[in-house]
Structure formats: C-alpha cells, structure tokens
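Thread title: Can someone regenerate the structure for this chain?

I was given the following input by a collaborator and told the matching structure tokens would be attached. They weren't. Posting the sequence so someone can regenerate them.
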Amino acid sequence: MISSRHPTATTDPAAAGLQPAGDGRMWYDRRFRPSLWRSGLTGFDAVMGSASGRCLRVLKDRENWHLKLSDPPQQAHGAYLKKHHVRTWRSRLGAMLGIRQAETAGRIEAQNVRALKAAGIEVMDLMAYGERIHADGLLESFVLTEELQQFEPLEQFLRGQFGPSPSHLCMRHDRDRDRDRLIRRLARIVRRFHAAGYNHRDLYCCHFFIKEPVPGEFQIKLIDLQRVQLRRRFRRRWLVKDLAQLAWSVPRNRVRCTQRLAFMRHYLGVPKLRPADKRLIRKVLAKQRLMQRKLGVAE
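Best answer:
Regenerated them for you:
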C-alpha cells in the first residue's frame, strides 16, 4: 500500500530537469526516452521488476544491474541500474508517527548528479530515476545511468596504459609525462570537488573513469554518487578520508612517491608544501596506514 502522505508527483523532486513518466513515480531524460521505451522501461514498476540484464551484485537493501538497451545495432549502448529497497527503524518509526519520510537513495543520487554537474565536475549521465514510499516505511527507489563508453576505472587504466613507475628520473620516457598530466588533472578535479563543499566517502580509484581520446589528453568522470555529502563545517576528517581512500587504492607500482607528492601540491594549489599542508599529508598517510592494516595493500 502506498502512503497517502506521498502523493503521485509530476514535477521532478530531485530538480534534475527530468520528465515524469505516466505513473508519476519515474522521471527520465527525454534524450533517452526512445531507448527506455523500446526496452520496456516505461515506469517505476517496469524498471523495478526488470530482470532482463545481468545482475552484478545483490545486497540486503540494494541490487546492481547492467542492462543492454534495445537500440538499433549502430546505436546500441548499455546502462547501469541500482535498485534500492530500504526499510530502517527510522523509516518504520516515521511511518508510524506520520512523519514525512527522508529522501530515497535514488533521489539523493539524482540530486548529486545535478549538483556536481552544476559545479563543473564531470559525472555519469542520469537516464532516469524513480521512487515509491510505502506506508510501512519501505523506501523503494532506483537510479539508471548511461554506461560510459570507452572509459576505464582509474586503477585499470593505470595498469593497462602505464608500465611500472621507474625509480630514477633518468629512466623516464614520454609516457611518464602523460602520467604526470593525468595525476595533475585528477588532483584538480578532486580539489574542485572538495572546494565546492562535497566529500565522497568512497573516493577509490574504481569511482574515477578515464578515457584518453588522444595521447596525453584525459577525460575523467566521477561515478557512484549516492553517498556524496555537502558539508560546510567540520569537514577535515571527511577530506582526509577521501584522500586516504584514493591514495590506498592507487596501484603501488604505477605511481611513485614523488608523483603522489605532486598530486598533493596540485590538489592544494601550491608550488611548495607549507607546514599546514604537511600536517594534512601526515593525517592522510596515517589514515592510509590504518586502511592497509584492515584491508591489506592495494596491488
């Protein structure tokens, strides 16, 4: 039974500029309407009930799917679908007390896509999202994003495109300069992301997708935005966590220590590290060592 406190909506509650589907529980980017409709993804129930793709992961409250949309062969492309089924003690209690429920996971990610694009940060394209709030506190939602064609996760890109980082500067070659450009570009993206007030909470290499259209020119997109937060105060520990997650997940033999320091200089926007910058780096390294003790060393 659907809660009467959450009436059928026509306007996009995430303010992502999307169009409502007929059932009022799904909003879609009109550019993708032909692909969605040909694939039978015409409303909330159709998407949540879809099992035509490949299931990548099933957790207690979430499913991840890869879909191949029904497009003409020359236009065929894929999409990634997250289905959320969340019921917590808080949502149960809110339903019992008649309190308006919190935003669903699907809506939050849709809002984050919109906000980060507005901040000038490249992210994946949102195709559609939807939500349904039940009277018993169950929060159902989904988010559907376009597959990034010819992009690779950062750690996979580093291993495939760059050999082990040489230990001596005299051994450098042209591809090392490209690696330096990639590190500089990545640092500036993380800097802009944090400067806009955001933290990711899962800022691992696997959430940066890279494409190199021409040698030395890199396109970088940030994905998996459900847990992104906007914080204006008490941010330091969250920035340290993001930076430590990224440092921990970079393949050790693809980026040497001097390049990691160069990343921090570009991230901080300084030619030479100041005492406060060194204190930040020590905190990041301490967090990284803690992660290594818990999770091992990322190879």
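DSSP finds nine helices and twelve strands in the chain.
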